[in-house]
Task: structure prediction
Amino acid sequence: DIQMTQSPSTLSASVGDRVIITCRASQSISSWLAWYQQKPGKAPKILIYKASSLESGVPSRFSGSGSGTEFTLTISSLQPDDFATYYCQQYSSYWTFGQGTKVEIK
Amino acid sequence: EVQLLESGGGLVQPGGSLRLSCAASGFTFSTYAMSWVRQAPGKGLEWVSGISDSGGNRDHADSVKGRFTISRDNSKNTLYLQMHSLRAEDTAVYWCTKGTTAYYSYYMDVWGKGTTVTVSS
Result:
């Protein structure tokens, strides 16, 4: 089974900050990686797929990069609506999520 | 508008059974893989089960293998999850999700609102 490890688990940031979340796969998954945003009591929402492709309708301040085993999600300028929990997910071999990164207000 | 609407959640005793349903609309249901994803209270996301567009291929997470069965009725645009031998650790919100391909190598681009399953005596 492929394990996904995110860091950090919690991130404190201010509006306007550049935020970077890292996701590491236990084996190569090529670019079969997605990023989701989840707010309390809501379903996750897709942000990025195939490691770096922005889902339609998602603000351009979100970007993804990486391939193989190392990936990052970057929010270029954090907005009030971005305080949420973010999950990476591999879909190379079945589906596995990272443990999540909570972005909270500093 | 693409929509997924889950139903069938509720309170069930340990060892009991429950069937979740997901009514899909706004897209050609029979051409996409579908999955169930769950989240236990205060925990992260866990993929539970997936099924190909035709229903001919099904996969289940090890944690539910032998107890849960995913199925679909393309004539009714409906996805199901039959759950048996339920355990306390199955307590979670269960989401119906749409895949982006017919099978494998897909991410979940549409999620329902979720249905809550509580396993407790």
Q: What stands out?
A: DSSP finds no helices and eleven strands in chain A. Chain A touches chain B through 22 residues (CB under 8 Å).
